[in-house]
Every structure is written in C-alpha cells, then in structure tokens.
User: Fold this.
Amino acid sequence: MLLERLEQAAAERTARGLTRRRRTAHTACAPHQAVSDGQGGARSLLSFCSNDYLGLANHPAVVDAFAEGARRYGAGSGASHLVNGHSLAHNQLEAELARWLAPCIPEARALYFCTGYMANLAVLSALGTADTTLFCDKLNHASLIDGALLARADVRRYPHRNTAALARQLAASDSLLKLIVTDGVFSMDGDIAPLAELLALAEHHDAWIVVDDAHGFGVLGERGHGVLEHLRLASERFIYIGTLGKAAGVAGAFVAAHTTIVEHLVNVARPYIYTTAAPPAAAQALLTSLALITGEEGHQRRAQLAQSIAQLRAGLQTLQAGHPQAGWQLADSATPIQPLIVGGNAAALALSEALDGDGIRVAAIRPPTVPEGTARLRITLSAAHGAADIARLLDSLGALAAQWEAA
Ligand SMILES: *Cc1c(COP(=O)(O)O)cnc(C)c1O
Assistant:
C-alpha cells in the first residue's frame, strides 16, 4: 500500500515536471567541477548554482584550517554542546561573530548551530510561544516556514515585502509578543527585505524582527558583515541568523541577538540542545573564513562579484530585449542571486536541460519552492567565476532564446 501510493505520487511528479534528482560531484565546489556522467565516469560542468558566493569553500587557507582543526580536536565533537561537545574553537567562533554583529545589535551574543535550518527551527520554536504572533513574509525560506509550524504561536503571512499590509496586521494584533520574520536576501528572488521600514514598524508596535541572512552574510556590507551592516541599521530588536555554509564556505549557522535571548536559546531551544555539536574543525575553518571575508581579500572578492553581477545583468537585459517572444523575465536583484523567470515547469526544466547539453549547470527552480507559474532558472554567481564563464553562459542562453522564439 505504501509503496503503491509513493509510486503513484512519483508518477504524478514526473508528469508535472517536478521530479528532483541529485548530481554527484567528483571534485571540490568550484565553477568548473567534475560530476558523474551517469555511466561510471565524470564530465566537467560550468555551474551557476552554488551558494559559495566568495569562492571560499575550497580556499587553501580555509582547507588548511579545517585540517589543523581536525588534528587538534579530532573529527567529531562526540556530544551535544550542553554535554561535552562544546569546544574552544566553537567559543572563539561565537566570540568573533558576536563582535561582528555588536555594532548592529547592542549586547549581542552569538550561538553556533550545525545548520541554518536548525537555527531557524530553534529561534522560532523557542520564542514563538502560545501568546506570540509570528508575522511572516510570504516568500520566506522553507526553514522559517517549518520553524513557524513547530512554534505554538499564531502565524500570519503578509504579501512579499508589503509593509503596509504588515502594518495593518500588527495594528490589529493584541498578541503579547510580536515577531516579524523575514529573509534578509530572499533566496529565490535575490531581493532585499525592507528592514529599515520593518524596524520602524517594530518600534511603533513593540515587535521584534527575526532576520535570516543566509544569502547576505559575507556578501553584503562594507566588511561583509551582512544585511544589517549594508543598511546601517542597529537595534536590540534584531534577532539575526547568518549561515556559514554559503558565503563563508564551510557549514553551520549562527544566531546573534541580545545576550538574554541567546541564553534562553541555549537553555530551551530543542534543535540546539538535542543534537551533536558540529565538528570543532568546522569552527576552526570558519575562523579563517571570517578573517578572509572581513579583510582585504574579502573586499576584492566582493568587488569581483559585483563586477560579475553587472556583466550578467547587462547581458541578460540585452538578450531579453532582443528576444521578447521568449517571454523570459530578469528579476530585479542586486545580489548574486539572479533569477530568470520562465513561467512553466516544463519550460524551466527544458531550459536547464538544454544548458546541461552545453556543459552548463543552472538549477531550474519549480513549485513548491516558488509560486506556481513562476518557475525559473536561478543563476547564482560566485567571486570564483571569471568574465569568460559568464560570457559562455550568456552565449548559450542567447542561442537558446533564438530557438525558443522560433519554436
Ligand atoms: C540555505 C538557507 C537556509 C538553511 O541554511 P543551511 O545552513 O543550509 O541549513 C536558511 N535560510 C535561507 C534563506 C537559506 O537560503
């Protein structure tokens, strides 16, 4: 019965162009990567789908720090943080992260998690008590949606970035505790949350703001400290989540918030308490990542990334103007997430597969990850891409757009 039911669900997924499959990499995360060819060998792909925005995932200094951390602390932590899995490397990482966020969050303390998914579950389940309302942007990441499901709080959703609608919801609420919950940079659209307006609303309605900056940390801000630094905002009302497997190139995540909030998470957040601490070696590697992000090399990598974003956008705009019948739409994004909205699931998948035929990997993102009818190619850029890589993507897309129009 179970297997028949699942087989039927699989057949329906296939019919709707929604089947997902994995690719197996044979080499490190990089724009040019060898992946399994399905026949026991490997082939090289140029990819535009990793979140390794600064190209640190395979940076020699970060890899060395990981190895050094493993020699010093071993491969695994052996237990949860509250038992005996918490190490000096974890402490040093948290201290450095707290220092980064302190200008934006007075009395900030930071807490390291194994993943961003777990950090989001932890924050929303620990703070979202029964007398709380969570006000969530409709395009929030799945992990925030799941965190809201785990919370005992009331959940309201407001239209994407619509502060007027949010203001009405806040005014109508008589909850004791109000938490506004938003991505910092939206993961499927690349646009930035209107955090200055959200902060003004939070102050007016005595609410708090949970910001998930998975795609802003390391990328945005003068020193790469994220969306709050970028927008020059400061308030103790911010509960900031940064992830460390994307721009920081390693793994894990952190929550930075007023020390009283973080102490509460340590004591009650089940996704923090009931899991084995991440390997201390990861924390050791992250200390090196952070030094790179905030130093001269980070500046250069962010400048390189900005140049690539400009090159890609200019190329896509030309392409869109030259092939209006293709019906592709470039989203309004200033970040390394550059979606090209195609519409139908089958079309997005066909485009992604055609690029694959050219040796280029761009993910087709389909519902339920994005709303129905907005299937897209989600192009992500890294500081490790060169101008020639981007030109090659634009050439392939140009040829496909011409075919698309003719069809
Ligand atoms: C990737 C992502 C997460 C999850 O972080 P992981 O460390 O990969 O678990 C959370 N929020 C957003 C917006 C993300 O893009």
